[in-house]
Amino acid sequence: MLIDAPAYDEKSEKLKMNLLIGTGVLVALLVVLAFAGFILGHGWLFTNLGAEHNVNNFFKAIEAKQYAKAYGIYYNDADWQQHPGKYSNYPLERFTEDWTTESPVNAPITEHHVDISKTDGSGMFGSGIIVAVRVNGTHKIFMFQNRADGTLVYPAMHVLQYGDDR
Description:
The protein contains four helices and four strands. By secondary structure, the protein is of the alpha+beta class. The chain folds into two domains: 34 residues; 113 residues. A four-stranded antiparallel sheet has the order 1-2-3-4, covered by helices on one side. Strand 1 and strand 2 form a beta hairpin. Helix 2 packs antiparallel against helix 3.
């Protein structure tokens, strides 16, 4: 009956309303961020930014002629010099040659810009991320970062169509 109805608690009702509005705003913001990251080419919720940052650091090291540092980034092993035998199939000397005299752009790499990235491979979030980099102004290079171990692979298994490719 109405006689047994609890008394109206304005403070409690205001709290419930604020929680409801806050939750709605949070969900809307999450949806916007999810789609913004995808549309801008950085993955759902900008999840590819870590791989883009890693590839950016790799090319900064190449440009600075810090090939040992770039090699460590490539293998995701900053302490690679402690166990060089682990990478004997692709030694630093060959790596340096591949990124200098035999570089993918047939010239020394002097500038770069990370353009876009895309999740690739199998699994819910893909097995890796392809990062498109514009090198020396005009050449596109596609690097792949393996999600399992953070290593880089060149060339990536696929190329991305974007920008002036469309």
